[in-house]
Design a protein that fits this description.
Elements: H1 2-51, E1 56-65, E2 75-83, H2 88-95, E3 106-110, E4 116-123
Antiparallel strand pairs: 1-2, 2-4, 3-4
Length: 133
Amino acid sequence: MKWLKRIGLGILFSPFMLIVIFVLYEVFGMCANNISTNRQTKQLQAHLESEISDLQIINIYSKTGNTAGTGNHVDCLSSVTFSTQMPVSEIKDKMSKYYTFDEWSCYVSQTENGTYLFYLNTSAPFPNNIEGH
């Protein structure tokens, strides 16, 4: 009779345990995605600093989430606004050993006020996380 009671309690509490496991998985995924975005942004900054001698960083921005607004996916977005005397073509040449420029998810562009924007958008380690909804 005790084993029937234990089986019954196990069946009764199993939905709650599954919900707790799911929530913990989502929280773990969110933390991993945010860590990945921070690492990507710091790495981008380090690559720029090592390759461009007269670099002056103006702004660093990063975001973890659905950056396109379409679909249920999570992206790691990093963008650095900086100034230098180098032309865009030379910046691309120096940074091409680290990044593949495709003019959609990775590009360098000159802004209206003469500064440059390096934009990098990659998929997160947990792309189907709740952050993408």
